[in-house]
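Need residues for this backbone.
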């Protein structure tokens, strides 16, 4: 299932605190576009639905509609700096045909 990086979890938890939504789950949705790519949406959701899949990752309560589960299998939500001072959430999802794994920038052995 979908997991969060510590950076993504920290940002989500901070946003929840700032908006008074500390005890509200983050809903993540996904749908396949006509070119096969996966489009995402997310937001705090206190409504809940009976058939939702609810779980925690890095201390963040998440909810996902069962119809989205296969699209997000083994996906990771990260929060990264693209340019100095410009941060964004990104989905690293091997189910997306346009996905390219990040290059390892660590030291080589």
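Answer:
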């Amino acid at each position: 299932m979908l997991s969060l990086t510590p950076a993504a979890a920290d940002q989500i938890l901070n946003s929840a605190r700032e908006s008074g939504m500390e005890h509200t789950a983050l809903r993540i949705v996904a749908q396949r576009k006509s070119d096969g790519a996966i489009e995402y949406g997310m937001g705090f959701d206190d409504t809940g639905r009976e058939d939702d899949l609810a779980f925690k990752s890095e201390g963040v309560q998440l909810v996902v509609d069962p119809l989205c589960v296969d699209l997000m299998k083994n996906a990771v939500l990260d929060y990264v700096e693209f340019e100095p001072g410009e941060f964004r959430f990104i989905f690293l999802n091997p189910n997306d045909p346009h996905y390219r794994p990040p290059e390892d920038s660590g030291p080589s052995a």
